[in-house]
Amino acid sequence: MKRNFTLPRQNIIFQFENSIMVLIKKYFPEITALQNEQFLNFEKSFTLHNAKLNLISRKDIDNLQIHHILHSLSIAKALKFRPGTRVLDVGTGGGLPGIPLAILFPETEFLLLDSINKKIAAATEIVREIGLENVKTLADRSENIKEKFDFVTARAVTAFPKFVHSVKHCTKEKQINSLPNGILYLKGGEFQEEIEEFKKNAIVYKISDFFDENYFETKKIIYLPM
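^ thats the sequence. predicted structure below, dont judge the formating
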C-alpha cells in the first residue's frame, strides 16, 4: 500500500530532489513509483537525522547519493536477492547499506544491526518514516545474534578477518539464491593481504564494472561464501 509521507524541511532546501532518481534509474530502470517515493524520502529523512546525529560525516552529506546510497545498491549488481531471502546488515549506522537494498528488494527481509543505541534509534525512525515493512532493527553485537540469514552485509566496519569471525555463525545452510549463502562486504582501497586467508573462496567484484562514477574506481565488494 502506498503511504502518504511528508517530512519537515527544517530549513534544508532540497533543490534537486529528483536528481537521486535520475541516478538510480540510470542503473535500476525497473523501479516502481512506490520505490521512487521511498528513495526520495530516504534521502530526505537520512539528511535530517544526520544533521542531529552525524550518521555519516557532515562534510560528506552532499555526496549522500553517490557515496552512500548508490554505493549500497552496488550489492544488487553482484546479486539480486530472491523473494524470501533474509539479510543481516551489521554496523548499519543510519541504515547503510540495508535500507537502500530493502527498498530495492521489498520481498527480502532485513535486520539492521548496530551496537550504538543512538544510531539504531535513528535507523528505526528512518524505516518508520519511509514506511518500510520488510525491515527490523536491533541494537546489539553480531556475536550475540542467534537467528540465521542467507547473507550478511556491511560497509567496512572492521578488518575483514575480524568481521568474518564475528558473523560466521549467522548464515544458514539452505540456499535459495544464485550464489551460496555468505558475506557481501563493501570495502575500498587495497586489501589483498587482509583477505589472504580467504583467497581460495572469496570473489572480489569491482564496483567500477557496474557504475560509471569516478568515486567507484577503488571500491569493491568482497563476497565470501560461508
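The CA atoms of residues 71 and 97 lie 8 Å apart.
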